[in-house]
Amino acid sequence: MEAYQFIKDYKAHDPYRKSFIQLAKRIFNIDFAPWYEQGFWNDNYICYSYVDKHEVIANVSVNKMELIINGAKQEAIQIGTVMTAPEYRRQGLAKQLLQKALDDYDSAYDLYFLAANQEAIPLYETCGFQLIEENCYEIDMAGYTLLDKPLRRADVSPEAMVEVKKGSCPLSTVLSAQGDEHILMFYYTAGFRDFIYQVNKDVHVMFQLEGDVLHLYDIFSPAKVNVEQLVEQIAPLATKTVVCHFTPDHSVKQLTAKIDSTSSWMVRTTTKGFPPLARFPKISQA
User: Which residue range or ranges hold the N-acetyltransferase domain (predicted)?
Assistant: First the structure.
Protein backbone atom coordinates (compact mmCIF):
# COMPACT_ATOMS: atom_id res chain seq x y z
CA MET A 1 0.00 0.00 0.00
CA GLU A 2 1.20 3.49 -0.79
CA ALA A 3 1.95 5.85 2.07
CA TYR A 4 -0.80 8.46 2.13
CA GLN A 5 -0.74 11.64 4.19
CA PHE A 6 -2.78 11.48 7.38
CA ILE A 7 -4.65 14.62 8.51
CA LYS A 8 -7.24 15.35 11.18
CA ASP A 9 -9.31 18.20 12.61
CA TYR A 10 -8.87 20.37 9.54
CA LYS A 11 -12.16 22.24 9.23
CA ALA A 12 -10.26 25.55 9.11
CA HIS A 13 -8.09 24.35 6.20
CA ASP A 14 -10.05 25.40 3.13
CA PRO A 15 -8.58 23.03 0.50
CA TYR A 16 -8.84 19.92 2.69
CA ARG A 17 -12.32 20.81 3.96
CA LYS A 18 -13.58 21.43 0.43
CA SER A 19 -12.07 18.16 -0.73
CA PHE A 20 -13.80 16.32 2.13
CA ILE A 21 -17.10 17.95 1.13
CA GLN A 22 -16.64 16.83 -2.47
CA LEU A 23 -15.92 13.26 -1.41
CA ALA A 24 -19.06 13.21 0.78
CA LYS A 25 -21.10 14.43 -2.18
CA ARG A 26 -19.62 11.73 -4.36
CA ILE A 27 -20.10 8.87 -1.90
CA PHE A 28 -23.30 9.82 -0.03
CA ASN A 29 -24.81 12.60 -2.15
CA ILE A 30 -24.88 14.86 0.91
CA ASP A 31 -23.55 18.40 1.10
CA PHE A 32 -21.68 19.57 4.20
CA ALA A 33 -21.08 23.05 2.76
CA PRO A 34 -24.23 24.81 4.07
CA TRP A 35 -23.65 23.29 7.50
CA TYR A 36 -20.10 24.63 7.59
CA GLU A 37 -20.95 28.01 6.04
CA GLN A 38 -23.65 28.67 8.65
CA GLY A 39 -21.21 27.96 11.46
CA PHE A 40 -22.50 24.61 12.73
CA TRP A 41 -19.37 22.52 12.11
CA ASN A 42 -17.98 22.87 15.61
CA ASP A 43 -15.24 21.22 17.66
CA ASN A 44 -17.43 18.20 18.40
CA TYR A 45 -17.11 16.97 14.79
CA ILE A 46 -13.57 15.89 13.93
CA CYS A 47 -12.45 14.37 10.64
CA TYR A 48 -9.70 11.75 10.41
CA SER A 49 -8.63 11.47 6.79
CA TYR A 50 -6.05 10.26 4.31
CA VAL A 51 -4.93 12.56 1.52
CA ASP A 52 -3.38 11.72 -1.84
CA LYS A 53 -2.24 14.44 -4.22
CA HIS A 54 -3.89 17.06 -1.96
CA GLU A 55 -7.29 15.34 -2.18
CA VAL A 56 -9.14 13.60 0.67
CA ILE A 57 -9.49 9.95 -0.34
CA ALA A 58 -10.77 8.32 2.87
CA ASN A 59 -12.39 9.53 6.08
CA VAL A 60 -13.72 8.53 9.49
CA SER A 61 -15.39 11.23 11.60
CA VAL A 62 -15.67 11.50 15.38
CA ASN A 63 -18.77 13.06 16.93
CA LYS A 64 -18.37 13.86 20.63
CA MET A 65 -21.62 13.97 22.60
CA GLU A 66 -23.23 13.25 25.93
CA LEU A 67 -25.80 10.47 26.08
CA ILE A 68 -28.66 9.99 28.51
CA ILE A 69 -28.88 6.25 29.27
CA ASN A 70 -31.61 5.21 31.70
CA GLY A 71 -31.54 8.70 33.20
CA ALA A 72 -27.76 8.87 33.71
CA LYS A 73 -25.29 10.94 31.70
CA GLN A 74 -22.45 9.27 29.82
CA GLU A 75 -19.84 10.75 27.51
CA ALA A 76 -19.73 8.95 24.17
CA ILE A 77 -18.40 9.12 20.64
CA GLN A 78 -20.46 8.41 17.56
CA ILE A 79 -18.46 7.40 14.52
CA GLY A 80 -19.81 8.66 11.20
CA THR A 81 -19.07 9.72 7.62
CA VAL A 82 -16.96 6.61 7.03
CA MET A 83 -16.05 6.72 3.36
CA THR A 84 -13.33 5.83 0.88
CA ALA A 85 -13.09 6.90 -2.74
CA PRO A 86 -13.86 3.82 -4.90
CA GLU A 87 -10.44 3.78 -6.57
CA TYR A 88 -8.73 3.61 -3.14
CA ARG A 89 -10.79 0.83 -1.58
CA ARG A 90 -9.54 -2.60 -0.42
CA GLN A 91 -6.44 -1.07 1.18
CA GLY A 92 -7.69 -1.02 4.77
CA LEU A 93 -7.79 2.78 4.93
CA ALA A 94 -11.06 3.07 6.86
CA LYS A 95 -9.89 0.57 9.45
CA GLN A 96 -6.60 2.43 9.92
CA LEU A 97 -8.41 5.76 10.37
CA LEU A 98 -10.88 4.25 12.82
CA GLN A 99 -8.02 2.79 14.84
CA LYS A 100 -6.30 6.19 14.94
CA ALA A 101 -9.48 7.73 16.34
CA LEU A 102 -9.87 4.97 18.93
CA ASP A 103 -6.24 5.37 19.98
CA ASP A 104 -6.78 9.10 20.50
CA TYR A 105 -9.92 8.76 22.63
CA ASP A 106 -9.69 5.44 24.45
CA SER A 107 -8.15 7.07 27.51
CA ALA A 108 -11.15 9.40 27.92
CA TYR A 109 -14.08 7.50 26.38
CA ASP A 110 -15.40 3.99 26.87
CA LEU A 111 -18.55 4.10 24.74
CA TYR A 112 -18.40 4.32 20.94
CA PHE A 113 -21.25 3.59 18.56
CA LEU A 114 -22.02 3.75 14.84
CA ALA A 115 -24.55 2.78 12.19
CA ALA A 116 -22.95 0.22 9.88
CA ASN A 117 -23.79 -0.95 6.41
CA GLN A 118 -23.79 -4.72 5.96
CA GLU A 119 -20.53 -4.80 4.01
CA ALA A 120 -18.63 -2.93 6.73
CA ILE A 121 -19.81 -4.98 9.72
CA PRO A 122 -16.77 -7.36 9.67
CA LEU A 123 -14.42 -4.36 9.64
CA TYR A 124 -16.02 -2.86 12.72
CA GLU A 125 -16.08 -6.20 14.50
CA THR A 126 -12.29 -6.44 14.19
CA CYS A 127 -12.13 -3.10 16.04
CA GLY A 128 -14.25 -4.35 18.94
CA PHE A 129 -17.73 -3.22 17.85
CA GLN A 130 -20.71 -5.54 18.35
CA LEU A 131 -24.08 -5.53 16.60
CA ILE A 132 -27.09 -4.68 18.74
CA GLU A 133 -30.81 -4.87 18.08
CA GLU A 134 -33.25 -1.99 18.39
CA ASN A 135 -37.01 -1.69 18.33
CA CYS A 136 -39.20 0.38 16.07
CA TYR A 137 -42.06 2.11 17.88
CA GLU A 138 -45.44 2.78 16.25
CA ILE A 139 -48.69 4.26 17.55
CA ASP A 140 -51.96 3.04 16.05
CA MET A 141 -54.03 6.24 15.84
CA ALA A 142 -57.44 4.55 15.79
CA GLY A 143 -59.53 6.15 18.52
CA TYR A 144 -57.31 9.23 18.87
CA THR A 145 -58.75 12.72 18.30
CA LEU A 146 -57.10 14.13 15.17
CA LEU A 147 -56.84 17.63 13.72
CA ASP A 148 -59.43 18.89 11.24
CA LYS A 149 -56.84 21.28 9.81
CA PRO A 150 -53.14 20.41 9.48
CA LEU A 151 -50.73 22.26 11.73
CA ARG A 152 -48.85 25.04 9.93
CA ARG A 153 -45.09 24.78 9.67
CA ALA A 154 -43.03 27.13 11.81
CA ASP A 155 -40.33 29.35 10.34
CA VAL A 156 -37.53 28.94 12.87
CA SER A 157 -34.22 30.65 12.15
CA PRO A 158 -30.98 28.68 12.54
CA GLU A 159 -29.95 30.69 15.57
CA ALA A 160 -33.35 30.22 17.21
CA MET A 161 -33.28 26.48 16.49
CA VAL A 162 -29.98 26.08 18.31
CA GLU A 163 -31.35 27.94 21.34
CA VAL A 164 -34.53 25.85 21.30
CA LYS A 165 -32.43 22.69 21.30
CA LYS A 166 -30.13 23.89 24.08
CA GLY A 167 -33.13 24.78 26.24
CA SER A 168 -34.88 21.43 25.78
CA CYS A 169 -35.00 18.51 28.17
CA PRO A 170 -33.81 15.10 26.92
CA LEU A 171 -36.03 13.54 24.25
CA SER A 172 -35.99 10.24 26.14
CA THR A 173 -34.58 9.28 29.52
CA VAL A 174 -34.08 5.74 28.18
CA LEU A 175 -31.71 6.77 25.38
CA SER A 176 -31.05 10.20 23.91
CA ALA A 177 -28.24 12.65 23.23
CA GLN A 178 -27.17 16.06 24.50
CA GLY A 179 -24.48 18.36 23.17
CA ASP A 180 -25.37 17.24 19.66
CA GLU A 181 -26.60 20.57 18.32
CA HIS A 182 -24.10 20.22 15.48
CA ILE A 183 -25.88 17.06 14.28
CA LEU A 184 -29.36 18.57 14.62
CA MET A 185 -28.25 21.54 12.54
CA PHE A 186 -26.87 19.27 9.84
CA TYR A 187 -30.39 17.88 9.41
CA TYR A 188 -31.78 21.42 9.60
CA THR A 189 -29.54 22.69 6.80
CA ALA A 190 -30.23 19.54 4.77
CA GLY A 191 -33.97 20.28 4.56
CA PHE A 192 -35.44 19.24 7.91
CA ARG A 193 -36.18 22.87 8.73
CA ASP A 194 -39.33 22.27 6.63
CA PHE A 195 -40.50 19.69 9.20
CA ILE A 196 -40.54 22.00 12.23
CA TYR A 197 -43.86 22.92 13.85
CA GLN A 198 -44.69 24.96 16.93
CA VAL A 199 -47.41 23.48 19.13
CA ASN A 200 -47.36 26.30 21.68
CA LYS A 201 -44.90 28.92 22.91
CA ASP A 202 -42.74 26.30 24.64
CA VAL A 203 -43.05 23.22 22.44
CA HIS A 204 -41.56 22.67 18.97
CA VAL A 205 -41.89 19.38 17.13
CA MET A 206 -40.06 17.94 14.14
CA PHE A 207 -42.20 15.57 12.08
CA GLN A 208 -42.87 14.54 8.49
CA LEU A 209 -46.06 13.31 6.86
CA GLU A 210 -45.92 10.52 4.29
CA GLY A 211 -49.45 9.61 3.25
CA ASP A 212 -51.26 8.31 6.34
CA VAL A 213 -48.02 7.89 8.33
CA LEU A 214 -46.58 10.62 10.57
CA HIS A 215 -42.86 10.28 11.30
CA LEU A 216 -42.18 11.89 14.67
CA TYR A 217 -38.48 12.77 14.78
CA ASP A 218 -37.97 15.09 17.75
CA ILE A 219 -39.70 17.05 20.49
CA PHE A 220 -38.17 20.27 21.80
CA SER A 221 -39.47 21.53 25.13
CA PRO A 222 -37.99 22.74 28.43
CA ALA A 223 -40.45 20.44 30.23
CA LYS A 224 -41.33 16.81 29.60
CA VAL A 225 -44.05 16.34 26.97
CA ASN A 226 -46.58 13.52 27.05
CA VAL A 227 -46.39 11.82 23.63
CA GLU A 228 -49.94 10.48 23.85
CA GLN A 229 -51.29 14.02 24.27
CA LEU A 230 -48.85 15.50 21.75
CA VAL A 231 -49.88 13.31 18.82
CA GLU A 232 -53.45 14.61 19.09
CA GLN A 233 -52.04 18.14 18.74
CA ILE A 234 -50.06 17.43 15.57
CA ALA A 235 -51.67 14.55 13.63
CA PRO A 236 -54.13 15.45 10.83
CA LEU A 237 -57.31 13.47 10.17
CA ALA A 238 -55.77 11.11 7.60
CA THR A 239 -53.12 9.84 10.03
CA LYS A 240 -53.32 6.12 10.75
CA THR A 241 -49.88 5.53 12.26
CA VAL A 242 -47.28 7.60 14.10
CA VAL A 243 -43.74 6.25 13.89
CA CYS A 244 -41.57 7.39 16.81
CA HIS A 245 -37.95 7.68 15.68
CA PHE A 246 -36.77 7.45 19.30
CA THR A 247 -37.62 5.44 22.43
CA PRO A 248 -40.72 6.70 24.27
CA ASP A 249 -39.99 6.63 28.00
CA HIS A 250 -43.57 6.53 29.29
CA SER A 251 -46.77 4.66 28.58
CA VAL A 252 -48.51 5.62 25.31
CA LYS A 253 -51.91 4.31 24.26
CA GLN A 254 -51.72 1.81 21.38
CA LEU A 255 -47.93 2.00 21.17
CA THR A 256 -46.34 -1.18 19.85
CA ALA A 257 -42.69 -2.18 19.74
CA LYS A 258 -41.07 -4.70 17.44
CA ILE A 259 -37.50 -5.46 16.46
CA ASP A 260 -36.33 -3.43 13.48
CA SER A 261 -34.78 -5.93 11.08
CA THR A 262 -33.16 -3.11 9.06
CA SER A 263 -31.21 -1.67 12.01
CA SER A 264 -27.43 -2.08 12.09
CA TRP A 265 -26.19 -0.17 15.12
CA MET A 266 -22.91 -1.33 16.59
CA VAL A 267 -21.45 -0.51 20.00
CA ARG A 268 -17.94 -0.74 21.44
CA THR A 269 -17.69 -0.59 25.23
CA THR A 270 -16.29 -2.46 28.21
CA THR A 271 -18.85 -1.15 30.69
CA LYS A 272 -22.26 0.36 29.92
CA GLY A 273 -23.81 0.16 26.45
CA PHE A 274 -27.25 1.01 25.08
CA PRO A 275 -30.33 -0.26 26.95
CA PRO A 276 -31.63 -3.47 25.32
CA LEU A 277 -33.71 -2.78 22.18
CA ALA A 278 -33.74 1.00 22.77
CA ARG A 279 -33.98 3.10 19.62
CA PHE A 280 -31.35 5.80 19.15
CA PRO A 281 -32.97 9.09 18.02
CA LYS A 282 -32.93 9.67 14.26
CA ILE A 283 -32.01 13.35 14.55
CA SER A 284 -28.94 12.50 16.64
CA GLN A 285 -27.60 10.03 14.06
CA ALA A 286 -24.46 11.24 12.31
Answer: 5-152
